[in-house]
């Protein structure tokens, strides 16, 4: 095919958008709504996953160090702890810090009672966060075998609950997004089919004058791709406004996030690149391929 | 050249024998009317020539293509040697007269310069130069059929099939359309015109092929009133 012919076919695709504006508009709306549904559901899932992971990150294992451990033994224990693969971060919480922290959390009367204590009864501890909360029990058991470890405290029950929540949520989110994708594809396929069906005579005539299938398909492909891209841009803008509206409500620093130890929602700017690429790619591919496949049915003349 | 050798067509869906061992030869440069009652097999004959359907048995040769052996991917090449004029015009409604005619040349990758010179010339041959920028819906039936004729003619095909080309236009314009086809034929293009307008056939005369119940029961050259004038 000559470049001039290719250029002609592309221009036919572009002008086809206006010439068939009613069906084009229908395809555009369906694509936009479908992309929006799947996009918003995915963003919700991504943010809920982040919130759950934030809670997980705050789950600490407290390692109580034996009273007979000197500074060198503590340092040695720290090295052993760091060597455990599932340990994410480690922080020494000295008995003085623990004592002061305890006093700070007390009322004035309670504090007065402890003022005359002649010895700090609290131990030095290491506070660890783990990389994979599902391995918390194994990690805790491993820590307990180390020298100078008096005992450990880990929220394994809480971790188990979080793991269950995360698993159920992952399954639910995947199912919802998958269902929306399927529903969207069915609706889009029907719309593109209707759009092409309205032009079946045109395709028929092209076949009678000796046009090849590729020659007929290219303008439809271009048209579908452009409509898909425009719908993706529309969906992107609407997503931005909707997302930022929700984000502004929940982004308040003071309340839920800090108290519950949860991570904040992603800002839209953080997600802009992957969301834009996903929308534009999905819009272009679904628009182009959907129209192209629907055209195929009418090419058998 | 169109040749049918013992061609039969049976439609699977209805079990109807549309053509029954038909033998027919239309040489290059011929002008033939194909006549016959509705359901006689005229449309089936046209569909076979365009390879819209395949023969159940027998061989169909069109412009050097053996349609029995012709692969689907080569059908466009066959159709580029044939111009088709339909009863219902079948113009692309979203294209102007010029674009409808030029489309055929674009399909065959003709150079832009050639398209720019050839299309206005062919449109002028059918007398529609002043309507080149009009859309089909802005034209009368006769004008639309002339556009269809220009489209069939523009890539200089070896064969033009006119399937009831006068069925949707005024009787007076019918003669004009056949005159145009005759003029094209005089330049060497083979014309196969399907019609059931016996007045037209009687007037122009020439080779007349009558199909009845799937068989050719008459194939002769007959003098017409037109020749006597």
From TrEMBL, chain B:
SUPFAM superfamilies: P-loop containing nucleoside triphosphate hydrolases. One of its GO terms (molecular function) is ATP binding. GO terms for cellular component: plasma membrane. It is a peripheral membrane protein. InterPro entries: AAA+_ATPase, ABC_transporter-like_ATP-bd, ABC_transporter-like_CS, ABC_transpr_LolD-like, Cell_div_FtsE, P-loop_NTPase. It is found in: Cell membrane. It comes from the Bacteria. Its main location: membrane. The keyword Protease does not apply. GO terms for biological process: cell division. Residues 2-229 form the ABC transporter domain. Keywords: ATP-binding, Cell cycle, Cell division, Cell membrane, Membrane, Nucleotide-binding. PANTHER family: CELL DIVISION ATP-BINDING PROTEIN FTSE (PTHR24220:SF470), IMPORT ATP-BINDING PROTEIN (PTHR24220). Homodimer. Forms a membrane-associated complex with FtsX. Part of the ABC transporter FtsEX involved in cellular division. Belongs to the ABC transporter superfamily. This is Cell division ATP-binding protein FtsE. It comes from Ruminococcus albus 8.
């Amino acid at each position: 095919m000559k470049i001039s012919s290719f250029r002609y076919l592309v221009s036919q695709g572009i002008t086809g958008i206006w010439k068939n504006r009613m069906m084009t508009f229908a395809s555009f709306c369906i694509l936009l709504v479908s992309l929006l549904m799947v996009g918003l559901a995915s963003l919700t899932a991504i943010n809920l996953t982040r919130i759950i992971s934030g809670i997980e990150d705050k789950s600490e294992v407290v390692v109580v160090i034996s009273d007979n451990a000197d500074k060198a033994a503590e340092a040695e224990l720290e090295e052993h702890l760091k060597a455990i693969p599932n340990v994410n971060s480690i922080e020494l919480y000295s008995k003085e810090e623990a004592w002061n922290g305890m006093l700070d959390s007390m009322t004035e009367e309670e504090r007065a009672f402890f003022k005359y204590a002649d010895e700090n009864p609290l131990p030095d501890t290491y506070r660890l966060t783990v990389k994979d909360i599902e391995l918390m029990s194994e990690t805790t058991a491993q820590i307990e075998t180390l020298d100078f470890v008096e005992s450990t405290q880990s929220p394994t029950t809480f971790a188990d609950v979080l793991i269950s929540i995360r698993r159920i949520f992952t399954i639910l989110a995947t199912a919802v997004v998958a269902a929306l994708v399927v529903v969207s594809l069915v609706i889009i396929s029907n719309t593109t089919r209707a759009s092409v069906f309205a032009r079946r005579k045109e395709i028929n005539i092209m076949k009678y004058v000796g046009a090849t299938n590729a020659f007929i398909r290219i303008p439809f492909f271009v048209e579908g791709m452009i409509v898909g891209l425009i719908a993706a841009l529309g969906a992107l803008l609407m997503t931005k406004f909707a997302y930022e509206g929700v984000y502004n409500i929940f982004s308040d620093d003071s309340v839920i996030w800090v108290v519950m130890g949860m991570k904040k929602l992603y800002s839209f700017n953080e997600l802009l690149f992957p969301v834009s690429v996903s929308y534009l790619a999905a819009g272009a591919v679904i628009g182009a391929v959907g129209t192209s496949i629907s055209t195929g049915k009418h090419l058998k003349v | 050249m169109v040749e049918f050798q013992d061609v039969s067509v049976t439609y699977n869906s209805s079990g109807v024998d549309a053509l029954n061992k038909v033998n027919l030869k239309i040489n290059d440069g011929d002008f033939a009317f194909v006549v016959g009652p509705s359901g006689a097999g005229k449309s089936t004959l046209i569909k076979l020539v365009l390879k819209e359907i395949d023969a159940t048995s027998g061989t169909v040769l069109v412009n050097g293509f053996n349609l029995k052996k012709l692969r689907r991917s080569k059908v466009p090449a066959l159709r580029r040697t044939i111009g088709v004029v339909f009863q219902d015009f079948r113009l692309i409604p979203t294209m102007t007269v010029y674009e409808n005619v030029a489309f055929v040349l674009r399909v065959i990758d003709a150079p832009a310069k050639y398209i720019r010179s050839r299309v206005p010339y062919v449109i002028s041959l059918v007398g529609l130069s002043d309507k080149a920028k009009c859309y089909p819906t802005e034209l009368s039936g006769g004008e639309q059929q002339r556009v269809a004729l220009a489209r069939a003619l523009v890539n200089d095909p070896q064969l033009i099939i006119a399937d009831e080309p006068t069925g949707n236009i005024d009787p007076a314009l019918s003669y004009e359309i056949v005159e145009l086809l005759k003029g094209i034929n005089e330049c060497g293009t083979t014309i196969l015109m399907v019609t059931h307008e016996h007045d037209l056939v009687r007037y122009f005369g020439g080779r007349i092929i009558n199909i009845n119940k799937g068989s050719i029961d008459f194939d002769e050259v007959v003098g017409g009133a037109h020749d006597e004038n």
